[in-house]
Design goal:
Layout lengths: L1 H11 L15 H17 L1 E16 L11 E16 L2 E16 L5 E16 L5 E11 L4 E5 L2 E8 L5 E11 L5 E14 L17 E18 L2 E12 L8 E11 L4 E11 L5 E10 L2 E9 L3 E13 L1
Antiparallel strand pairs: 1-2, 1-16, 2-3, 3-4, 4-5, 5-8, 6-7, 8-9, 9-10, 10-11, 11-12, 12-13, 13-16, 14-15
Amino acid sequence: MKKLSFLFLLGILPFLSFSQVNVDGLNDADKAKIKALQERAAATDTIWKFGGSAGLNFSQAYFSNWAAGGQNSISGTAFFNGFAKYTKGRNSWDNSIDLAYGLQALDKKDPIKTDDKIDLTSKYGYQLKNPNWYYSALFNFRSQFAPGYEIEDGEEIGPKISDFFAPAYMIFSLGMDYKPNDNFSALLSPLTTKITIVNDDRLAPDFGIDPGDNVRFELGAFVKLTYQKDIFENVNLLTRIDLFSNYANNPQNVDVNWETLISMKINSWLSASIATQLIYDDDIMIVTDSREVIVDGEPTIIEKRGPRTQFKEVFALGLSVKF
């Protein structure tokens, strides 16, 4: 009878989803076999999770004979954030995409770019016996869609200072990922390759690439910290910071990319957000001083360039949808 009971349990085990099985009356050997089958089935379970949000933020102002003064303007930003997460036994694979593009027009001037972002991340993890730690491999790609220019009096001036794949950054890292809960992750990688691509010979030196080249390879250490949590009802906080140190060139000058997003859901369609980004990379040369001098009787602009802390803040209110 015990063997018949064991065979019966084997038959219904898949339909019970390996939740709870009554093993009363079975001997220790049969109990061990059922436990092994449960563990094997759990190891083969595959779960995909998909989600994200997309939306359009819009603002407009119009003035006519307005005594207090003002400037007509119209602006809009489109964004898309998506993720796909895969788990199978001790394997996990997290993928995310973050896209944004915004324009603003003042009076009758040509539109200028207010936001431009491409950020793709793919991370594979293999869970250790300690469930909080994973062997991890990460790939990250960052660039932008359109050319960027210096802005003066609400207009783009001078030659472009950036473009699609000018620059673009790719990171490949191997290390350990510490995930004590669903809110926090700390990726520690002593072996990371950072690739900078500037598909414009004129712009290449501004991003630490030697004249005549378009690609720069760096080997170093990488740390990625991520924290996400609902801090209030319908208010979500996401903050992540990437730190990279080049072993061969000024390892004390750590590259920093720190992003924070506070998302507030007003109702099914309306949302508001505050996003900030801080970047420091001593390979990126930014104009710190500009003056006009006379050279051989001709006026010439002399620019002084150097690394600087970059900061961006965007407040948005508009339509959004989650999926």
